[in-house]
Amino acid sequence: MTLENNTPGRLMAAESAQSFAVFAASAVQEIENPLSVPRAIYTVARGSSDAAANVLSYEFMRELGIPVTSLPPSVFSRGQGVDLNGCAALVISQSGASHDLVLSAKGAAKSGATVMALTNQPDSAVEGASDVTLSIGAGPELAVPATKSVIGSIGAGMALLGKLKPAYAEDAARSAKAFATMKPEHPEAEKLQSAFLRARHVYVIGRDTGYGAAHEVALKLKECCAIHAEAYSSSEVLHGPLQLATNPLMVLMLDTGLPQTQESLDQAEARFQQAGCDVHRIRVSDLNLDNLTPAAAAAALLAVIYPVILRTALALGLDPDAPETLSKVTQTT
């Protein structure tokens, strides 16, 4: 998608197009610091970074066999922290400057954790409070919606996992090679854009690493297009949230191709179709890619959905580079 220098969305267009190269580099970066597998990992992040953390949590749990879950930054920024002896804290921050994340990194270290950070800004405050830092490697990202830094965060997390489990490093390298050859367009892009333009309420459904990707897509639909969107696991959505299918509802399903998730996704798809929803399922197999880990598959689906969300925002008369109520670095407590 080519945009003139003064055209709304030009920054997001350029930056999302760089996602493929960013992932290919970040997933194979070298880590010199010695690391051992902790008894548990707690992720600390907000917004799109938290969606990336969600993707990575499933990959780490599957590969390392240890608990990986999210801690709210307020545990450290407002509270007294928790005992993290023998554990690791994984702090993900594009800027490395958010006050609550800096306090979280410092608080986690004080509580006995090995602090690992994924940041895009060299020499940030979060990096200064961490034991080991991996570069997201996205370079300057000026559009308010994060795109290439989200993809780079997933890649950097995969590099970290490869350090903790050396055999996985080979999987990360194969994923990086495949990512570098990706076409930046989903074959259903126009159909999806039309569906988004019709939609007023969207469920984004995933499972395993696809669930984290679903959170990111739902966030971007709200952030860029002002469309109400919610993310659900394909198992949880069949409980109370299914009732909203009695109203006009678009359902976007993200399928990373993981065999263990197919039955759950199939069941959810069938139920929503029976309820008369506008159901769309995009599969990583649509991209003709091999050798992707589940985390890389989630990143690939994000990389091809970002341009669709961008074009939807522009068609709605919005500038996704600078959403009216948002700023690039959000200071929270």
UniProtKB/TrEMBL annotation:
InterPro entries: GlmS/AgaS_SIS, GlmS/FrlB_SIS, SIS_dom, SIS_dom_sf. The keyword Hydrolase does not apply. Residues 27-174, 192-323 form the SIS domain. One of its GO terms (molecular function) is transaminase activity. Keywords: Aminotransferase, Repeat, Transferase. Pfam families: SIS (PF01380). It comes from the Bacteria. One of its GO terms (biological process) is carbohydrate derivative metabolic process. Gene3D superfamilies: Glucose-6-phosphate isomerase like protein, domain 1 (3.40.50.10490). This is Glutamine--fructose-6-phosphate transaminase. It comes from Yoonia litorea.
